[in-house]
Amino acid sequence: MGLRLSKESREVEMATYASLRHSPKHLGPNLSAKRLFDVVAASCALLFTGPLILTIAILIRLQDGAPAVFKQTRQGKDGRPFDCYKLRSMVPDAGAQLQHLLATDPEARREWAETQKLTNDPRITPLGQFIRKSSIDELPQLVNVIRGDMSLVGPRPIVENEIAKYGDSYKHYCAVRPGLTGLWQVRGRSDTSYDSRVAMDVEYAREQSFLTDIKIILLTVPAVFKSKGAR
Questions:
Q1: pTM for the complete prediction?
Q2: Confidence check: pLDDT of 22 > 70
């Protein structure tokens, strides 16, 4: 969804990819332990939440007959795109509705340009409001974690149009796998500015550790229950 990258944005992206190709790879024991933890923990979580995911998926399908699982291309580690899975929280023609809204509503267009989100998004269904507030819509991303597209902890995966907002900081985003949760989730989510989100992604990429990941996971539980900043 959204507009394609401008020529200037594409040049930023290509420059970042070039710097990534010449950056040394540091694959140490910590990375191996993180990956092992991701696979084991995500597999257990998927078994535990499987009945809930299936129940919500059936309800989504019953409300309008459209597929319950939504996939969207996101940017992964080293800038590689991947299909990111979510339980669908929007109407089937959400893309077309967004384009119409941005073309006709200046305030919505301004908010979308700043945050890539809308405070009052008319595309979200009543059931979608609930699964977004509770973060249930993101549970299918456990499959992404098991596949190696994502990690349990890391920057939230972004779409191509958001690359330009990162500027030179995009290389830090690309240095790690995007996460199911991260600093942004436990520090306010959509209640923070986009620049703050980028700064948190840079902070995580520079200072990541196994203990930091455990702390973020533990902080995610109360953050989800409070639904602070969830949209």
A1: 0.82
A2: no
